[in-house]
Amino acid sequence: MAKQTTKATDDPIVLAVIEDQALLKDEYSKTQKKLKALHQKIIHNDLGDTELEEVKQEIQKVKNRFKAFSQMITQHAQWLEKEAKK
Amino acid sequence: MAEQQLPSKLYELSGQEVSEKTAESLAREEYLEELKRTTRVSKRELSIEVESADKETSKEFLLAKQSLDKVLQLRAQQLKELTLPERVDSLVAEYRKSPEEWQKKIEKSGMGLASWAMRGIYSQAAENLGITKASGEKSNKEALLAAVKSGQISVEDALAALDLHLEETLQDERFDNDVLKSMLTSHLDTFHLKLTSGQAQEEIRSVAAPLPPQEAGETLSMPADDLPLDETPEQEQEMPLAPVERTAIPRGEYQTPIELGKPETLAALKGSLERAFSAEETRYAEQYNALSPEDQKDVDQEALYRLHLQYAQRLADNFLNQSVGKRYQSLFDKYIKKNILEPDDQEALENIASFHSVLEAIDTTKAMTSPEDFGQFALELKNNTPGNPPELQQITAELLTLLAWQRGGCSVISSEQAVKASTTTFMKREFNPFLAKIHSNELFGPKVAVLQQPIKWEQLENTISDPTPPGDIQYLTPYVSSLLDSVDLLPNGDPTKRESSYDRKAFDYRIALASISPELLPTVVASAHRNSSDTFAINTDLSERLGIDVAYTTRAIGYRESREWSGKHNRTPYYKPFDLAYQIKYGGNSLVLKPRLENNAYLDVPDYNGDLSPLRNEGPVVEYAESINTERIKAFRHTAEEQISKASAALIQLEQEQDKGTTSYAEQREHGPAFATNRSANVISLINESTDRMERIFEEVRDATIKAQEALRKYLATQKNPPKEISALLDSYNNDPRELLNYQVPGRFSFSGRQEKEDLEQKLEQLRRAYNQQMRQFKNWFDNYQKSKIEDVNKAGFSSGDSPDWVALRTLLGKQRGETLTFEDFTQLTRLDRNNWCPDVSSIYRPETNKNGDVTQLLKFNPYSNGGEFTPVNPKDKTRDHGNSSHEQKIIDHYRRLSTAKEALEGLPQPEEDQRRAYLPSLS
Question: Phi, psi at residue B912, to the nearest 5°?
């Protein structure tokens, strides 16, 4: 078992996947927190029209940012897959 | 999606519909209720959006994770570690425990996310530097390193290109992740170090070159070219050392400015690096030599090499941290290179648009302060920009504005202001035609070369003596020609030798500005006026430096504000119509600016055909009109109003000081009893000054009146049958207009001791009343005089001279409209003529006639049209003439009246043929 662990964690592709997993999870966690905070803001604050519009834009921004990041991870994964098949 | 989930009724009540309902039927309370409900709907809408975003991100997360899991499963099979996917979470936890350690391993493997992203950066950089992978090279990174090592590209170029793309990548939303950003930067830093340490090796080798071969051979066991590509910095530091060059080397300085846009920039930077290395080595050698031989043996030679490496890195960082240089060079390289290869590259244009921030950086870092840099950069952009993109126009405008301002000595204006100026409507309107010329190569060719270095006198002579001047030189020639001719009038004939009276610097400025383009100068100056509170400081400054009158150049393009400014400020050279004639001339596509001597005289332009004598030969009426000189009246009015205003302000101040009570008394105690008295004396002085000016103006008016009356008498004496009533009227007038107008100067106020505020106010009011009364009376008198005299004189066929337009216009105003000249007509006409009193009005305005000789429309000289030609004036199009349409409409009307009058007069019985000929206005 110990031998296997050493082998996997030395493998460049496995290492890259693990790092991507960590980054993706962190980013997802951050995104969820942001969305939650925005939701709280909407519910608990008496926001004016301008502020509501700002919140709306912020939601889009947070969403798009994560989408871009996750798509990049997907692209990297696809490249890793290709490299693995070489 | 959120909208679809809303109850339809609520949704219907949102937005515009609510306000419409409010307007139509809802009572205020109902409206407020609806508003509250719609607000709640918005909140609900947003809540739904948050939920939706949450779902979408979850979906994206799962998709990405599945992709990663898929790779892991594949790898598990390949590695025959089937349990690997199950251990993902524990491995991720391990990663989190010591991320740096993992990242180092992953970076070394070259498969991680940062490495993958870096591949894109290397790829872009290689592409932009024109480097292609050789057969033996696995990656663009290797190709880049190889290109640097082979000397195909410099270290600086490679670093700049990489840094540009790194910056772009970091700004990419996909990479908006702190960890990733940090990894990318670190990754590139490592590569930078590799590049620069390669440079360090080169330096060490070159330093080592003078040493005996065997010694060099021993130490340089591994040449830089043989460096393993994937070597880490730690490995590089373990390289064999270069020997210390113990000969004292002069200490260099790393102070080379970033001279942007110049081909030698990179060479200069490289030189800086070399000097810095030498200096560092010297410093080390000095320390080393100071040691005893025994101590020298103990010196760790490796430390020297490490020192070099560290210093190389520091230098590289210094270079990279000079954001202007780095960003500019990268941007420029990319833009130019991209556009040469891919002319329609939108990305490149966007990069250029981002040059705004570089402009800001210029101000911040002061790294690029030379106007030549701006000029050179603008030229390079122009020469390398296909398609004349609007972004580039904007940037070029900014650069040129900066350039001109700097050249003009208006260094108080920041680039921020320049940018602001260039975005004003005025600048857009004025600059675009000019920029169009830049990009059509009509302007800005060799003139920029002039900007790059002070032009030599011989160069100028060569320029004009060349029988076939190339291209744009022709554009410069009229100015240079006039300047040369003008300078010949100077005692020494060579401005470079006349620093005291004909400032060399100013001469250079003139050359530089003239070489930008005659059209740019007024534009820039006008924009400077628009955007600076120191309008007339700039005006005067430029005027003095350039030897031209800036206000007049702005007038030359019909920019009326210059006159308005003149009215507001005393410091500006006052509007002098005849001076204008001597300074500016439109012709062909050139604008000749007259140099001004230190005694304020203007040198004659040899080809100037602005003989004003015909004006003076037009007869007594013209002489009279000249002598009345509405400009003087205007000046007087301005002066009087200003004086009254000053006096009023002084009074208010005095009043305030008196009202202060204790303060005032305290001040009086401090300054003595003369304090308040002096204040009062100032007010009196202002009032008296105004009175004196009024007196002087009326002296002039009186002299002019006498002169005109004498001229009329003289003329009438030459007539066979002069109208008796005119002679009678003339005799009835007293020569002194003060009596004629029943004018009484209020008299100088005496000053005796402290003047009370009420007393001063009374005197001021007296002055104001006198001024108003006098102006009113003068107007009435003038109207009556015109009515009774000029019309009668004209009826008698009065006119003479070869250039009767001016007389005829006034005559026709009365004849054609059946009216007499009013004061306003007169002032308007005189101002009209005098504003455009160039050699002749036709140099700016020209009538277009049909085959019958009828005036069909008015043409105006348009310097922006095809290099300068007469184009039709549309009086309704105010934008074309800066709101001057009524001005031009008058000219059109005048020409039409002339034409009509010509026909009418030809049908009239004329007393004598010569008189008839003299009377007919010339339309040629």
Answer: -140, 150
